[in-house]
Amino acid sequence: MNPDTPDPLDIMLDASAPAGAPPRPEDVKYMIAQAAQQAAPRRRHAPLVVGGVVIALVAGGTGVAAASDGLSWAPWAQDPAVSIEFTMASGLRCEIRHSEYSGGADPSVVRDVNGVLDEWYRSGEMLSAVQRLVPNVIDDLGPDFGIAEGEDPTSLTDEQVEHADWVREWTAWNTALSEAEFDELARQGITADDPGLSGSERAGQINCRDIDGSPFVPGAGS
User: Is residue 2 a part of any domain in this protein?
Assistant: First the structure.
């Protein structure tokens, strides 16, 4: 693996939200881009910060157990709060799973958030809401997202291009999911800057399969 290529197995939950006021939803994509740019050359964790909540994904592999579907999921992900499946432009079939929100300055607010989102997940409206947002998020991230800072995009190997495309697309889906969730919360009277959410956290994980159905190993061969 190219040492300058971000290792998705390093993309782990930071487990603590930043101090101070939560960021606005419109700041989410900017912060994700900044985190990825800083993470790529140094192989650091790349948390996604949404509404005062630190969220990140870990690719199936280290420290997780194989489930009945042949993929490796963390114990909490065996029964996640939400799961969304999608097919990437490359043909990879992926699934993102998230836990409920926990912690936070006001447990009653976090409990309300989880209740609203659970009802929304069950309504069947989630997938279409997320799908509508994905193209714009991909455009906002830009074609160089997922490439190590300072690396010439024209000099990448096929494996590095595949890896960058994978990072960009799962980031877009994860961001779109978070944005759609906060849109629904806003409709229900809960805003992203609610101080009760400050310090809350959430775990996430992604797994993908190749076109032939085999578990996809991010960055393999790069």
Answer: no
Output the CA angle 215-144-18, nearest 5 degrees.
80
Q: How far apart are CA 200 and CA 185, in angstroms?
A: 15
How many structural domains does the chain have? 1
**How does strand 53-59 pair with strand 200-209?**
parallel
Q: Is residue 105 part of a domain?
A: yes
Which domain, by its residues, includes 160? Answer: 8-209
Partnered with residue 59 across adjacent β-strands are 206
Please check whether residue 97 lies inside any domain of the structure. yes
pLDDT in tens, the chain (222 residues): 444 444 433 333 332 233 333 444 444 444 444 444 333 322 222 334 333 344 444 544 433 444 445 678 888 888 999 999 999 999 999 999 999 999 999 999 999 999 999 999 999 899 999 999 999 999 999 988 888 887 888 888 888 888 889 999 999 999 999 999 999 999 999 988 899 999 998 888 889 999 999 988 875 433
Is residue 218 a part of any domain in this protein? Answer: no
In degrees, rounded to 5, the angle at the alpha carbon of residue 178 between the alpha carbons of residues 143 and 75 is 105
Distance, in Å, from the CA atom of 166 to the CA atom of 160, rounded to the nearest integer, reads: 10
| CA–CA dist 141, 144 (Å, integer) | 8
Q: Do residues 218 and 212 lie in contact, with contact meaning Cβ atoms separated by under 8 Å?
A: no
